[in-house]
Design a protein that fits this description.
The chain is α/β, with parallel strands linked by helices. It folds into 2 domains: 1-101, Formyl transferase, N-terminal domain (Rossmann fold, 3-Layer(aba) Sandwich); 107-208, Rossmann fold, CATH 3.40.50. It is built from 6 helices and 10 strands, in the order βαβαβαβαβαββαβββ. The longest helix has 24 residues, at 163-186. The mean pLDDT is 98. The structure holds glycinamide ribonucleotide (GAR).
Length: 208
């Protein structure tokens, strides 16, 4: 059984979707722990209620990114993860941390990367007049919101969309695509060559 550690900062709805899919679909994996940088993250309570181990490493208690990341890695490694899943984990990670989990740490980002890295992706897509928005699941590398793309989902931008309405439609697709991509990872179905990710059995990496 592969061991998954999920990192969150807040609500944790993607974490919940992944934990539910893992149990319901009988993945060869278990969610070993959910770790948050915010002790009051709502998702921690949900995970604990499911009997999943939880931990918090409060970033405010550490003087710099290096010391925070070192403590975070210590806590994560205590759960012996095969796969580390960032699910709304809103911290910039140091290169040392990303190197440690290279090839086995993934993230979901609410835009069609490489467009709109960083924050406020939906507002920026609407303001740019984009007709499509979406989300990207990718391997995590040292560069923020970059890294080999595992899968993407396209969501139309509708006339009159607000940041809120668009983000809700994108989030609904995150809950479908992210569990699917994490399952591929735990089932060793992904190949990465020269920064390009392909699915070994040719499953579509695009959700429309
Ligand atoms: C999700 O929309 C995720 O894509 C985004 O935060 C939200 C977390 O929601 N992540 C990022 O912006 C990372 N750069 P959740 O806590 O309900 O899963």
């Amino acid at each position: 059984m592969k061991r998954i550690v999920i990192l969150i900062s807040g609500r944790g709805s993607n974490m919940e979707a992944i934990a539910r899919a893992c149990a319901a679909e009988g993945w060869p994996a278990t969610v070993a722990a959910v770790v948050s940088n915010r002790p009051d993250a709502a998702g921690l309570a949900w995970a604990a209620a499911q009997g999943i181990a939880t931990a918090a490493v409060d970033h405010k208690a550490w003087p710099d990114r290096e010391s925070f990341d070192a403590e975070l890695a210590r806590v994560i490694d205590a759960f012996s993860p095969d796969v580390v899943v960032l699910a709304g984990f809103m911290r910039i990670l140091t290169p040392g941390f990303t190197r440690r989990y290279e090839g086995r740490m993934v993230n979901v980002h609410p835009s069609l990367l490489p467009a709109f890295t960083g924050l406020h992706t939906h507002r920026r897509a609407i303001e740019a007049g984009c007709k499509v928005a979406g989300l990207t699941v990718h391997f995590v590398t040292a560069e923020l919101d970059h890294g080999p793309i595992i899968a993407q989902a396209v969501v139309p931008v509708l006339l009159g969309d607000s940041e809120e309405s668009l983000s809700q439609r994108v989030l609904a697709r995150e809950h479908v695509l992210y569990p699917r991509a994490v399952r591929w990872l735990v089932e060793d179905r992904l190949d990465v060559r020269e920064g390009i990710v392909t699915h070994r059995d040719g499953e579509s990496q695009l959700l429309t």
